[in-house]
Each structure stands twice: as C-alpha cells, then as structure tokens.
Amino acid sequence: MLLRLTHGGAVWLMVAVTLMWATAGVVTRHLAQAHSFEITFWRSFFTMLALLVILPLWRGRAVFSQIRSGGRELWISGVCWTVMFTAFMVALTLASTASVLVTMSLGPLLTALAARVFIGHRLPVRTWVAIVVAGLGIAWMYGTQLVQGGAAGGSLLGTLVALCVPLAGATNWTVVQHARAKGHDIDLVPAVLIGAALSALLTLPFALPFQANAHDLGLLAFLGVFQLAIPCVLAVLCVQVLKAPEVALLALLEVIFGIALAWIGAGEEPAASVLTGGALVIGALVFNELLALRGRRATVADTALPSAH
C-alpha cells in the first residue's frame, strides 16, 4: 500500500495522529473493572493483533523476515517501544492525564541531550535555554506533588513512571542514529510490532486474573487499534515528509488534546501546578522548535522518530 503525501496533507494527517494518541486518557478513565497491568496487557495485545494484519497489507509478508534479520539494534529499539507502551499506560492509572502528558512532552529535549552526550552533536544556545526552562517547569510540577503528597494532579509515582517514556524514546533515537551512522538502517515499523508483543508478554503475568468485562475489552480494543496501531503507521508516513521540528511541534498537540479530552470527557480538571509547569515546558518546546524551523541547515540530529506510546 503506497500513500504519497503532500506537505499540507502530512501536516493535517499528523494533527489527526495526535488526536488519536490523545484519546488514551479519557478512554482509560471510563474502564470499569480492568486494573493497571491488565489495561497495559490488553492494549498491547490488541495493538499486536492489529499490526499483524496491517503490516503485511502495507509492506507485504517480507516485513516478518525483516524482524528475523533485523539485528541487535532492531531488537533494542523494540525494547524501547516496550518501555514506552508499558510505562505510559501504567502511569495513566497512577497519575492524572495532564501530569503524564506534560512529563512525556520532554521527549525532544531529552533526545537532544542524548545526541549531545552519546553522539557528540552540538546543541545550539536556544536548545540549552529550552532545556533549562522545561526543567524548571517539570521541577515545579514534581515538587508541588511531592510537597502535597501526590495531590494536585496525580501521584509523584505516576509522573516518575511517565518519565520512563521520554527516556526510552531518547534511547531509541540514539540507537537508531548510531545504527544509521554505521550504515544499518532500522525499520521502525517492525520495531513497533516487537514492542507491542514484548509489552503484552511481559505484563501478562501481572495482569492475571483478568477482571475486564466486555465493556472494558471494547474500550481496550479501541486503544490498541485506533489509539496506537493505526496512528503509529500514519506517523511513520508523516515523518517521511515533515521535518523534525515540524513533527515535534505538531506532536505537542497531543498534550493539549489529551488534557482537553480528559477534562471534557471524564471531568478530570488539571491542577494549577500541572498547568503552570506544563506552560513552561510547552513554551520552551515551541520556542526551540520554531527557531529550529528557521534554520537553513538540516543535520542528522533533525531526524525524527514518531513518539508512539
């Protein structure tokens, strides 16, 4: 299946992708009986099933041979996706949607730091300024939760678990870039399938005994197919057309959409500390990526990975 996107089409498709990603919080709040690891298991399981159908139709059956011959880097990337899939859903059961999404939005800045430390990319002053401002925002949000014992937008544990998502994303980016520098191009789509399969396998023992009813399974199937599998595939198409700063800016819409949907659809009003810290983080990211778009020179550091979770 081939899909040629114009730049404008890719922008609007990426907006739709962020809206699909953003449904996780509000849908999770309407689950009746499923508990944390069971939620993670079923979402990953349904994602795996959906990708097993989508990928052969899109890439042909050769996609499965790519998994067998993908090498160590592909499997490391798959493990990173596993961490992202698992930590995201567990975090949503422990903290507010707003806290989780704001924490996860640190991904681009943590990726920039990883590029500096492990690959030696020089960071412009604007990125260092963004890192400091975003760090202050996160420190305010985490510090308020610590002082208030988990009130004001969710537990500290949940936001700490959510921090695993951007950390795994930065690790994934570093592995992919290192592999490409050696001439080994990692196909992200099989890596996502590996991540979903490993997440389902690893969380299965903790998900038993199953408590989800038919209503819960329907919602979890929706998350697996329409919140994760389909937008993952669409995001891969988008990053083939859009520049990394554009992807990073558009991805921030997930935070706005996710908080709004959870507020409107589940009555989950974000705490003042989360809104304040989130404003600093989002403002720093927008500042950094807008200036990046003005830059004339594209570097290897501008390669973007879709931030599926």
From TrEMBL:
Protein origin, superkingdom: Bacteria
Transmembrane portions of the chain: 40-58, 74-94, 100-118, 125-143, 155-176, 188-208, 220-242, 247-266, 272-291
GO CC, alphabetical: membrane
Alphabetical keyword list: Membrane, Transmembrane, Transmembrane helix
EamA domain ranges (all copies): 10-142, 157-287
Matching InterPro entries: EamA_dom, EmrE-like
Name of the protein this chain belongs to: EamA-like transporter family protein
Organism: Variovorax paradoxus
Classification of source organism: Bacteria, Pseudomonadati, Pseudomonadota, Betaproteobacteria, Burkholderiales
